[in-house]
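Researcher: Please predict.
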Amino acid sequence: GLFIESICNPAASITDMAALADAAHAVGVPLLVDNTLASPYLCRPIEHGADIVIHSTTKFISGHGSAMGGCIVDSGKFNWKQNDKFPSLTQPEAA
C-alpha cells in the first residue's frame, strides 16, 4: 500500500490525499493515512479517498497524553480481492 501522513511532521506540509488515492488505486494498492497530527476533528481522510486511517490516540484524541494507544479505521471500500497482491487477506489459511 501507499502510506502517507495527512499533515506531514515536522514541516506541516498538507498532503494531496485525493491525488495520491487515485495513484494508489490505479496500481491496485490501498492508501493508508496517518492522521495523528490532524486528528479526525480537523481531517477525515476517508472522504478524500483513504482506505485505511491510522490515529495515535496518545496525542490529540485522548487530550493529555494520559493514555497510550492507537486506532486503525478501515473504510471498507478497498477491494482486497481485485488482484493477487494480498493473499493473506483473500485466501484460506492452510494451517
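Model: The beta strands are 2-5, 7-8, 13-14, 31-34, 52-56, 70-74.
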